Request: fold
Amino acid sequence: MSGEPLWLCIELPALPLQALAVPVSGEQQPVVVYAQHGSRRWVVAGNHPRIGSGEALGSVQARFPELRVLARDTAAEAAALQAVGCLAYGLSDRIVLVNDAPRGLYDRPFQAVNVDIAPSLKLFGGIDPLLERARALLGTLPYTTHLAIAPTPEAAAVAVRAVLKPIVDAGALRARLAPLPLQQLRWPFAAQELLLASGHASLGDVLRHDRASLAARLGRGFPLALARLLGEAPDPRPWFTPPPRYRRRLDLDVEIEDWQALLFPLRRLFDEFEAYLRARQVSAAQLSLTLSRRRTENETFVLRTTTPTQSAETFLRLLRERWNTRPPTAAASELRLRADRFIALASPQTQLFDDGHSEGEAWNSLADRLRARLGDGALWRPGLAADHRPERAWAPDGDSSPQTSLPPRPLWLLRKPQSWKLRGPMATAPERIAGGWWDDAPVSRDYYRAKAAEGEAVWVYQDREDGRWYLQGLWG
Amino acid sequence: MSTRTLPDQLLQRPDIWVGSRLAAVAAETTGHPALDRLLPGGGWPRGALSEVLVPRAGVGELQLILPLLARLSQAGRRIAFVAPPHVPYAPALLAAGVDLQHCWVVEPQSETDCIWAIEQSLRCPGVGAVAGWLAVADERVQRRLQLAAENNGDGGGAIGLLMRPPQARRQPSVAALRLAIAPGADGPVVEVLKARGGRVGQSARLAAAP
Reply:
């Protein structure tokens, strides 16, 4: 394999529509997304086979009276493009995002992710297995994609628009592109019009001229663009890297009240999040989801896992568990996902005969589900704390090994001592416990082990301040 | 009469059941020798539900179950208290031999959540025993929990310990073992109300608390 790059272009032809979380087909009502310049509006993507992009919005509306019309949301498109960029990390780490605006009136944008697959071609075992892998990866996100392969990024973009078979050999590039009509090349409208008007129909017609005369007529930049297209000049572009923090917003087209229905758009967001984690080779232990309504009423859900994970399914399961018992209080029209802290992926390799490992994982997953449904404070380990006062000698999730040995203690501790009616003298000597003069809850008590009505042992104390008796523990 | 003295033809007959064979219950010792002698298999049935009727907290129910919990936790199995009436006091648990690393408390807010938490914990591989305090548990709930204990995913099955109020005595129970505990001056008394594959009606006195 030579050091020459080979580009896979992943075009997202329906991105303006799909970035808005509108289904592309299967919906009865036709939906279009339009671009606008001045008073002109034209369609850039639609979900109906008889609506072409580039049509004036008015004429489409005349044909489809029930048409739903949405304006382009370029921020949503950029976010979706990034998500596909993250997914493309599964193929190679040399990725360029292409987000070309319409060149003029009635043109549509060109949005694609370019991946340099030359370094990973050997890994996947050739073009066909790589394309298969790419399709499988892209299938995890709900975007329509077209794929093409060529030795330069621009040629790959042309090839995807012209639906060409993969062009692997740089030497064959010129011959393969020459018959293509000029319209496929996305040159500036002015240059395209000039060339068409002067009798050039295909790229081959243009290539017959020498570069100097092309520069004289079409501008200095034109020969350079041509050289980049054909791989004669380098075409440096900024590499895409996933941002250090994760922010994703999805505007819902309607307000959704039923949380079950929210899970559909959420699944997509979580899948994108998983692609992001995989691209960065990190995992996350915390993810916060905000549902908002008209940008004002916000409700935030923080999902935590005991062990950091890369799996979207884990977060989704936690969310479902929580909403089962505590559903969102209001309808949502916007979803926002954010994660700030990530943990470098630990190697999944463990000892060969490590049985406790999978049990530990099973328990961690159970702990996550319990916390998600019952609340964070509902699961804890009884532990010790370094304090003489009995109510402070334990702590949720405290130490689990003893620092000092204590006299016998009851198995049950009452959360709040109850007043106790003394029934005669104590048989044993008291254990005096005093402490806490350094903080706000000083105690001075004499503890006894007493017998309750039916002979069961209880732990009582006399407060040395006021002389009253209290029940604090049961021998259980 | 021992089975050895029965004629072979009689033993081969499928319609004759031999009591001593039925008693082959997989069990974990309770840690109370007097009680073990009364129980089929000599302890808490594994992969099954056991009920303990407790008149009120503190009569000796923790003393009854702690030897089991201590041994399981020391063996690295997780144990869980679900909806306990008071705080299981860490210094005393430690003194009883419980490995606090593997001891968990779950505090659900409602009965439904409580049943769910017991069921989920029983199903989790690596969990040895779950002690749950449950006031209401009809037959359907009990069957669910019984099934969860059987399908622990560990092969052996988990031990489910349900702490129930004494009113539950009148309800039918699907639990493999049903005990009642009562306080006593010389130590709590445990009565066997139901034992699958064993005899009922006997009682044993546990040693008084240390």
Q: What stands out?
A: The longest strand of chain A covers residues 297-309. Chain A touches chain B through 50 residues (CB under 8 Å). The radius of gyration of chain A is 34 Å. The mean pLDDT of chain A is 87.
